[in-house]
Write a structure and sequence with these properties.
The complex is a heterotrimer.
Chain A lengths: L9 H11 L1 H19 L35 H37 L1 H16 L2 H8 L9 H9 L3 H16 L1 H9 L3 H9 L4 H24 L11 H8 L7 H29 L9
Chain B lengths: L1 H29 L15 H10 L8 H13 L12 H36 L4 H15 L2 H18 L24 H38 L2 H9 L3 H13 L4 H9 L6 H7 L4 H10 L3 H29 L6
Chain C lengths: L6 E10 L6 E11 L4 E5 L6 H8 L8 E8 L2 E2 L5 H7 L4 E4 L3 H4 L6 H12 L4 H14 L5 H4 L9 H13 L5 E5 L7 H18 L2 E6 L2 H7 L2 E6 L2 E7 H6 L4 H8 L40 H5 L5 E2 L8 E2 L4 H7 L3 H4 L20 E16 L5 E17 L3 E5 L6 H10 L5 E6 L2 E2 L5 H10 E4 L3 H4 L6 H11 L7 H11 L16 H13 L5 E5 L7 H18 L2 E6 L2 H7 L2 E6 L2 E7 H6 L4 H9 L5 H6 L26 H5 L3 H9 L14 E2 L11
Parallel strand pairs in C: 3-8, 3-9, 6-7, 7-8, 15-20, 15-21, 18-19, 19-20
Antiparallel strand pairs in C: 1-2, 1-4, 4-5, 9-10, 10-12, 11-12, 13-14, 13-16, 16-17, 21-22, 22-23
The chains are: A mainly alpha, B mainly alpha, C alpha/beta.
């Protein structure tokens, strides 16, 4: 179909399509709201996550303790908010790290090929063969008392390989595309071609991948923290809360169901955003979720 | 051809070797089996602890390379070493992998079959009721961490037991373990008991598989729906429904085989969260216990086992792909 | 009128949903097809020609809204149930699609798919159906059909797949075959084969054919009657002779005038149609061609002209133009309606070739690739002899056309040149520098003088960069100060006939022709001396093509450029090139001045190639003798001994005695002057010139 030349740029078009998808907008709004309350609510509520109320042990939700308290008298709402802060940070930082790693490793392996490709491939194969869960678990004592950043780095280190393979495949085909060849025949150096032509042309893949990684990393953190291999005390995350109180689900339900509910809401919202982005970038492709 | 295969095989063996060694070194330097003897009352004498640890090749006072040499010599003879409780890692794996398989097989079969069928049907009925239901189901299930899902199903099962009055020893649905101890597994009652233990974890695993496969199969099918060959099939005179099944679904299954292959090869590796929550003593539980129990040899053994299975899964995926898609056959 | 039409389409309209809104893809189209005739529908991309034929079969996606009436033997097809339609589809009306790779299901064997087409409509045993499938494959000219029936579509070549599609279409002896661009994806010699098969199929079944194409040449050779589509509407229809010789709609005139003619040479003036077709999303009232039409009058803006009978022509010649009566009265031709630049005078009459500087010299260039097989177990199984010893040179101000079909090695050859690296063997000398021993620095400097324009302007421009950045990229790479970029970009845009404001646009906001102009501007940014043009017009619509060809000719003259012009379209090469080299399976079979080679081709392959190209001239098409080559290109990893062309050579198989053939089998013919001037070389032991146009 020869349509009249479209003067809107691709970015505007994607934004417009995204805004048109109601569920994706809903997801985006939920993420923003959760972000806001996670970080702003401690400024307004009476109890902080590390304060204990000696007058209320195992209290069900009340006007003072909205989400009830633990057996030590910690405020569940403050803990949940604190946990959500950590989950959000782990998800976002980890996703950016793993996608960036995947983009760079995949693009360089694909563009330069030969030895670099063989080396990066070997590292990818090795990391795919190694059970990441086990390795992170073994190393978990190292996180104790240190920054959670190390934990996020480790999570990201086991998350990038599949995307890197996709990036490498796309690089191989983009490399044969005529605009890349044109740049090469002009004498533009390889690394510049990667950053100017190849990676920007995968922006949609990378943005979607980063979004999907946010939810996978949040879920991975929960899994690890459930067994005590993730975020270490005195830090709390939604994962440690769920791990600590899963046995209380039948008796002191608020300790388990409230943080778990927030977690599911957060991941669901992120997944909706990811799905909406995918549709917005590629309106012809069917929507997917991972 | 032969030399190519041999080279490939050598590379895979090297991968397994490096992965396992890396896991061994990490575990040997980070885990602390000695801590198991600390805090005992009365504290055992240091020489006794050393002797016990030496016997298990777990003594952190022996240089790590020396321990590795002893361990790897064993591995080359097929012996993965001893656990901290002085049992054989080989036997441990040999027992637990079948537990995991018994736990997961039914859920995997149910989940993939229902997921594929549901996904394909949802694609054909895009934006209609069934599609919406499946989409919402997939989205929600895939947003719930497995631990939370398992806890939810377990508590729902307990709730159902209470509701229907199964409060005594005999339950409608069991939430812990593989079977009630003491029952003969091959009698009718034994089989029923096993089933009652299996239902809840199977539901957990099947839900996740249905959500996953449903979503992917739907997309694979949607990709096919606009394809030229489906139009050709209709232009030949095939009614739409027949064209969809014979030409559409058959082709849309191809991208799914990688997932099938991995899922079925990794049945032996176990489902960590489900096993933990429902108290099955499979490989998944072994994973976690090996780390919490400071069990260096078990960690290395488990890594070796998983690495080999991952490679087998990759091989299976290739074979299955070639079986379904003539374009990649050689 | 003779027999009652078997298909009557009345006021067919199709609306498709799109991102931008509803697209009026087909607007009130009416035509009828009589038994046994070939009705051609011609139009450019987006004209609605394919959509209208899919609507006839009710094979459009479910969001398409179809109105009007389609009567097949008096029976209304629109609105029928899927069950009822499936009894007609494949049995009474069959279809041949454009891309036979994607149109065949990849996981079933070709024989099974043909057998299936029979089994849906006839009750017979599987074995009998398979047997019929083998017979059908034999009928459409597939060698060893019993064996090939068990092969999968991906194991077939493009031509064989299309043969299989045709076999499937005629399996149930339909009354009507709709062929939607059946040869667009194929090379010319294969195209000639497929058209032959279609003719055979028609003879065998007696079916009428609706032939949809963008190629006026194919229409001229195949169709009895033609409909020309533009912007979703039929704008002119009539017998082929009426439409080709007495076109009355300016669009048809423009289309005919913009095609470079193989039989006319460099002195033909090409008439480009300015502008682009309108968007079908919100079509303004009036004639859709108005904005591009030199004959427009104020009323064209307001009222869309209906199809009117042309009085002077035979019955059934209709044209949709307010001024068609005037066009008819004055008998206007393309050149009268569309302004064309004067045909460029040949620059060849200057100094003799030998005295001009060599800008590029290639000697015995060889490039071999490892042939790997297997998607899972990748392994090397042989060597592809992509380029196997070619030699040529290009002098200052000269254009060498490099022609050949896909797989002949022409793309490999230019990539070797552009890489500026030492080849597998042989020598590449660019502006006097041998690529085998130049430094990194010299290679970088040489890139200034050697630039490239690619085939697909969409693929050759980074969609993420605005035009300004695209044009500034070579400037930046070669250290032109940033302050000078804007001025140079403006200058370049003007040079290629674009406006300064185009600099801020993204490629996707430009039309195909504009994009290719940007591609040319980028190649010119560093003031090169030699341009490699890799199929620069083959992905453009016909009406746009002429403008770009004219631009290339003008630039060459103004800037004193040399061109290496790679193309499979010999008509374009004839129009633009001074010399031409014909390539087959990695070697040159003929090289010489363009008029020598085209008017007096000496090599049997060149003759076959020229003969395979359809001319947009019905009378010539009817009287031409055709050489149709047999089979497909041999496997380039295992080329035939001796002469590489002998396996398909019409001379080898038809004229030569066994003793003479031995020489072809044993001795590889060298490129030598055998038939005329010293500059006309061919590689055939038994070369005899012949005129095939």
């Amino acid at each position: 179909m020869t349509a009249e030349p479209d003067v809107t740029s691709r970015g505007q078009l994607v934004l417009r399509r995204f805004l048109r998808r109601r569920l994706a907008m809903l997801g985006f709004t939920i993420v923003l709201v959760l972000f806001a309350i996670a970080y702003l609510s401690p400024l307004f509520v009476a109890w902080q996550y590390d304060e204990l109320d000696a007058s209320a042990f195992l209290s069900p939700p009340t006007g003072e303790h909205w989400f009830g308290t633990t057996q030590n008298g910690f405020d569940m709402f403050a803990l949940t908010m604190r946990g959500m802060q950590k989950s959000l940070v782990v998800g976002l930082v980890g996703a950016v790290l793993s996608t960036a790693l995947a983009a760079i490793a995949g693009a360089f392996a694909g563009y330069f090929g030969r030895i670099l490709n063989a080396a990066i491939s070997a590292v990818m194969d090795l990391l795919l063969v190694l059970p990441g869960f086990l390795i992170v678990a073994i190393l978990s004592p190292l996180f104790q008392g240190r920054t959670w950043l190390f934990f996020v780095l480790l999570l990201a280190a086991f998350q990038w390989m599949i995307t890197a393979r996709i990036v490498r495949g796309m690089t191989l085909s983009l490399k044969e595309r005529e605009f890349v060849q044109a740049a090469r025949f002009m004498g533009v150096p390889g690394w510049k071609i990667i950053f100017r032509h190849i990676l920007p042309n995968m922006a949609s893949l990378l943005i979607i991948d980063a979004t999907v990684n946010v939810s996978s990393l949040i879920l991975a953190e929960v899994g690890l923290s459930f067994f005590g291999f993730g975020i270490q005390p005195p830090d709390v995350s939604l994962g440690t809360l769920i791990g600590n109180y899963s046995n209380a689900a039948l008796t002191f339900w608020w300790q388990f169901y409230l943080p778990a509910g927030f977690l599911v809401l957060l991941v669901l919202a992120v997944n909706l955003v990811g799905d909406g982005l995918r549709d917005a970038f590629d309106p012809n492709a069917p929507s997917r979720v991972t | 051809m032969i030399s190519f295969l041999l080279r490939r095989l050598a590379y895979l063996a090297l991968l397994v070797l490096v992965a396992t060694s890396a896991a061994y070194f990490l575990a040997a330097t980070q885990l602390n089996p000695r801590s198991r003897y600390e805090g005992r009352n009365p504290p055992p004498p240091a020489a006794v602890v050393d002797a016990a640890l030496d016997a298990l090749n777990l003594n952190d006072r022996t240089p790590v390379l020396e321990r590795f040499a002893r361990w790897s010599t064993g591995v080359f003879h097929g012996d993965l070493g001893r656990t901290v409780d002085n049992t054989s890692v080989n036997e441990e794996i040999d027992r637990r992998m079948w537990v995991s398989l018994r736990l997961m097989l039914l859920g995997a079969i149910l989940g993939s079959a229902l997921g594929v069928a549901g996904g394909a049907y949802a694609a054909v009925k895009q934006y209609q009721k069934f599609d919406h239901v499946l989409t919402v189901f997939s989205f929600v299930i895939l947003s719930i961490p497995t631990v939370v899902l398992a806890v939810l199903y377990k508590n729902a099962g307990i709730g159902l037991n209470n509701l229907l009055g199964f409060t005594g020893e005999t339950k409608l649905l069991y939430t812990t373990g593989e079977m009630t101890p003491g029952l003969d597994p091959w009698t009718g009652a034994g089989i029923m008991d096993r089933m009652a233990h299996l239902i809840l974890p199977t539901l957990v695993l099947a839900s996740i598989s249905i959500a996953f496969y449903g979503r992917y199969q739907r997309n694979a099918m949607l990709d096919i729906l606009g394809s030229d060959f489906l139009r050709t099939a209709q232009a030949k005179g095939l009614p739409r429904s027949r064209a969809l099944i014979r030409h559409g679904l058959r082709t849309a299954l191809i991208p799914m085989v990688t997932f099938f292959a991995y899922q079925f090869a990794l049945l032996f590796v176990g489902a960590t969260f489900t096993e933990k929550i429902f108290g099955w003593h499979g490989m998944g539980e072994y994973f976690v216990n090996s780390v919490t129990g400071q069990d260096v040899n078990s960690v290395a053994g488990v890594t070796l086992f998983v690495a080999i299975l991952v490679l087998i899964a990759g091989f299976l995926a290739d074979v299955a792909y070639a079986a379904l898609d003539p374009r990649v056959r050689v | 009128m003779e027999a009652a039409p078997i298909l009557q389409v009345r006021d067919l309209s199709v609306t498709l949903d799109s991102e931008a809104g509803p697209v009026l893809a087909v607007r009130s189209v009416s035509y009828s097809v009589r038994p046994g005739e070939v009705f051609g529908i011609v139009g450019e991309s987006g004209s609605g020609k394919s959509v209208s034929s899919l609507a006839v079969m009710s094979l459009l996606p479910s969001h398409a809204r179809i109105r009007g009436s389609v009567l097949f033997r008096g029976q209304e097809l629109l609105g029928q149930s899927d069950r009822a339609l499936s009894r007609i589809r494949g049995r009474r009306i069959a279809m041949v699609f454009q891309d036979p790779l994607s149109a065949l299901t990849p996981v079933y064997s070709v024989g099974d798919q043909i057998a299936e087409a029979i089994l849906v409509h006839e009750s017979m045993s599987r074995e009998a159906a398979t047997e019929r499938a083998v017979e059908l494959l034999a009928l459409v000219g597939i060698p060893s059909p019993r064996h090939r029936a068990t092969a999968f579509p991906h194991e077939f070549s493009g031509g064989m797949r299309q043969r299989a599609m045709i076999a499937m279409a005629i399996a149930n002896r339909p009354d009507l075959i709709i062929a939607d661009e059946p040869t667009t994806a194929l090379d010319v010699t294969i195209q000639a084969q497929i058209l032959q098969v279609l003719r055979t199929a028609q003879e065998v079944t007696g079916a009428a054919i609706i032939l949809i194409t963008h190629d006026m040449g194919i229409i001229a050779g195949m169709a009895d009657r033609v409909g020309v589509m533009y912007a979703g509407k039929l704008v002119e229809t009539g017998s082929v002779d009426d439409v080709f010789y007495r076109a009355r709609m300016p669009y048809t005139l423009g289309l005919l005038g913009s095609i470079p003619r193989l039989d006319r040479g460099t002195h033909q003036a090409l008439t480009p149609i300015e502008g682009t077709p309108p968007s079908l999303v919100d079509l303004p009232p009036g004639c859709p061609f108005e904005s591009r039409c030199p004959l427009r009058i104020p009323s064209c803006r307001e009222v869309e002209p209906p199809l009117l009978e042309m009085a002077a022509s035979g019955p059934g010649h209709l044209a949709a133009c307010h001024r068609s009566a005037e066009v008819e009265r004055r008998d206007l031709k393309s050149a009268d309606v569309f302004p064309a630049p004067p045909p460029h005078a040949s620059d060849r009459d200057g100094a003799p070739r030998a005295e001009l500087d060599q800008v590029l010299e290639v000697q015995d260039l060889v490039k071999h690739f490892p042939l790997v097989k297997g998607a899972i177990l990748r392994r090397r199984v042989g060597t592809v002899h992509a380029v196997d010893g070619i030699s040529f040179d290009i002098r200052r101000g000269e254009t060498l056309g490099l022609v050949g079909e896909s797989g002949c090695g022409k793309t490999t050859a230019i990539m070797e040149i552009l890489n500026l690296l030492a080849p597998t063997s042989g020598r590449i000398v660019v502006f006097g520098r041998d690529t085998a021993n130049i430094t990194h620095r010299e290679r970088f400097e040489t890139r200034r003088d050697l630039q490239v324009v690619f085939q697909d302007p969409m693929a050759s421009l980074d969609p993420r960069l605005p035009v300004h950045d695209i044009l500034a990229e070579p400037l930046e790479a070669h250290g032109v100060p940033a302050v000078e970029h804007s001025a140079r970009v403006r200058e370049l845009l003007r040079l290629v006939g674009l406006e300064p404001q185009h600099a801020s646009r993204y490629p996707q906001a430009l039309s195909g022709g504009q994009r290719q102009r940007v591609g040319i501007a980028r190649a010119l940014a560093l003031e090169p001396r030699l341009l490699v043009l890799d199929e620069p017009v083959s992905s453009l619509d016909v009406s746009i093509r002429a403008g770009v060809i004219n631009l290339l000719e003008q630039l060459k003259k103004e800037l004193g450029l040399s061109y290496l012009f790679v193309a499979h379209d010999l008509s374009v090469v004839r129009h633009i090139a001074d010399r031409v080299a014909v390539m087959y399976l990695g070697r040159f079979v003929e090289i010489g001045a363009v008029d020598d080679v085209f008017d007096r081709p000496a090599h049997p392959y060149t003759q076959a190639l020229l003969s395979a190209i359809p001319l947009p001239d019905p009378v010539k098409e009817r009287t031409r003798t055709r050489i149709v080559l047999e089979g497909d290109l041999p496997d380039p990893s295992d080329p035939p001994t001796g002469c590489r062309f002998r396996t398909r050579c019409q001379k080898f198989s038809g004229e030569l005695a066994d003793a003479a053939r031995r020489r072809c089998i044993e001795e590889q013919p060298a490129l030598a002057a055998r038939t005329g001037g010293p500059d006309h070389l061919d590689a055939c032991h038994y070369a005899v010139t012949a005129s095939v146009l």
